[in-house]
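Here is an idea for our session: we take a single protein and study its fold together. Which protein we use is up to you, so please pick one and set it down. Once you have written the record down, we can walk along the chain together:
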Amino acid sequence: MKSFVAEEYDVVVVGAGHAGCEAALSSARMGMRTLVVSITLDAVAMMPCNPSVGGTGKGHLVREIDALGGEMAINADKSSIQSKMLNTAKGPAVHSLRVQSDKQKYHTEMKRVMEKQENLDLKQAEATEILVENGIIKGIVTRTGAIYGAKAVILVTGTFLAGKIFIGDVSYESGPNDLRAATELSK
């Protein structure tokens, strides 16, 4: 396949899950021309498993992201079905807020925020290669051969990178929710 130069960016973010959305929004809000690539735009801020934000394990992280101007907590509020303070029978040091979100609404709202963000482009593409010259990041190449130049590349591929589904003794390549796995970049 013949490659072609598609566009130049300051930052390319590979993956549009929670971390990819926050990285891209942060970069764009700092005035950097930013591109986010996702295998499918249906996976932007997708919650394939547990649709919770917060809780004992990651509640402090959500609050830190919120304090830094991130979208996760704002979006969780917009898509909330239920919120609950966990561990109330214990001391206040272990109290933890958890929000259960409507999966589709969370995805739709985060995608809308990203599409409206100045300095941010969202493209459906699979990154297959990271371009490096003399130890310096130069961008990415997509499955279609498009080259997106960048001064920085942020990899936040989550469970799509070399993703596999295991059912008993059977396994097959797949991302979450039977979406295509990112197989080329992992090589």
